[in-house]
Amino acid sequence: MSDKNPVYKAGPMFRGFSRSIPVAITQGVAMAARFAMLAVAARLSSVSDFGIYTTVSAVVAWAGVLVMGGWPSLMIATVPKEGVTREEIRRVEGKLLKAAIFLAIPQGLLLRIVLGENFTFGIAAATTLLLIAISMGTVTNETHRATGRVLSSRILFAAVPPLITVFSLLVFHFLVSSVAALFIIFGVALGWVGLWLAARASIQYSQASRSGASFEKRHPYNRRDFLVIKIAQSLLASGDVVVVAAVAGITASALYGVARRVATVAGLGLNSVSMLYGPRLSQVSNDPIKLRSVTREATLLSVVFSLPIAAVIGIFGNPVLRVFGADYAEAKPILLILLTGVVVSGIFGPVGTVVHVNGQERLSRNVMLFATSGFIICLYPATLLWGAIGAAATWAVATAAWNIALWTKVDYSFYAMNHPSS
């Protein structure tokens, strides 16, 4: 291998690997904590109640993307370059709160349609709180990470929501014996409220206040494209759970939801690399050579971390699924199919992050719309014909198509050519 490309030099590669280890460990702890939280919720509730929660969380994920409006992607693309002030964060939070209140009614109507007789006004109220908390917690924690405090943001994410949620669920169980879906939703919402407050208090703000154009108007990125991308990603991430609930029933949704969460553990490598390299990719986006080099380094680390984890989950799938309860072992075939999509994502590395920080959000938007459109068109008939297995296969194919298309179209010189003064 040539010495001309820094990705092949032992020094940078070793430093990248060594920096990834603490982040990967922290991200692993975060996943383990959330895994434990969900296992506790599944153990303390019935399969149908947990199925209601998994369906509700998928709907809230959609609404949350609409509320956040592309803000997390905007923060990771711009904050490493110019910082953020306390006043700017307050303005963002105000906009998020208004959007969450506005979307509470359509979210409730969608839940009424999907859940049918399982819907209650208590669930509607709890999901409104969850929507607000997830939106605020996600944006503030992503901003905290974008300021360069990757490890501390992961520690907050690992510790605060799961601990508060588990404590709340245990209290509910002590008071009412069986934890219904309403209590699971409320407990998770409290955990996100805790993350929001903790992350907000620990952001490294820029000292000088800014005048002139508002934060979202000063950057060269198109936040509307970020929003479209996130909507498409949310449909790809959770649309299958909702369709499985509507077509195959709440119990099938519970099994499918657990398989999806277990499969995401295989994405630990990619998530850790994206967390670590996101700010760095943003900083070197105006230098095509450095951007390509850092991208290759991040992709190699993603592969190194992702493949072994996926292999372990595939081999020991049954014992892992039984952690949630004996009934969930039936989800093993679903889990294996979903793992293929996660592995493909790991192989192609943080390509989505690269096109975002590189100013190619329009390319990402078009690719996501193409992949998501195919996913939506095929999802219902596949689920109707083959149940949760069909939904899992549709998701895996759509995920692979999205990654391959982005990887073939990314232009590492795009930002430098279009923003030469940056």
Task: Give the SSE layout.
Elements: H1 10-44, H2 47-68, H3 71-82, H4 86-115, H5 121-146, H6 150-176, H7 181-201, H8 215-218, H9 223-248, H10 250-264, H11 268-283, H12 288-315, H13 317-322, H14 332-348, H15 351-357, H16 361-386, H17 388-409, H18 414-418
Helix pairs in contact: 1-6, 1-11, 2-4, 2-5, 2-7, 2-9, 2-10, 3-5, 3-11, 4-5, 5-6, 5-7, 6-7, 9-10, 9-16, 9-17, 10-14, 11-12, 12-14, 14-17, 16-17
Could you explain the architecture of this structure?
By secondary structure, the chain is an all-alpha fold. The protein has one domain. Helix content is 82%, strand content 0%. It is built from 18 helices and no strands. Helix 1 packs parallel to helix 6. The longest helix has 35 residues. It is globular, with a radius of gyration of 21 Å. The N terminus is likely disordered.
Estimate the mean pLDDT confidence: 81
The shape, in one word, is globular
* Gap from first CA to last CA: 33 Å
Question: What fraction of the residues are assigned to beta strands by DSSP?
Answer: under 5%
**Structural class, judged by helices and strands?**
mainly alpha
DSSP strand count: 0
Return the string of H and E elements.
Answer: HHHHHHHHHHHHHHHHHH
* SS summary, helix count: 18
What oligomeric state is this? single chain
Runs with pLDDT <50, length 5+?
A: 1-17
Number of individual domains? 1
Describe the largest sheet: none
Alpha-carbon Rg, integer = 21 Å
Helical fraction equals over 70%
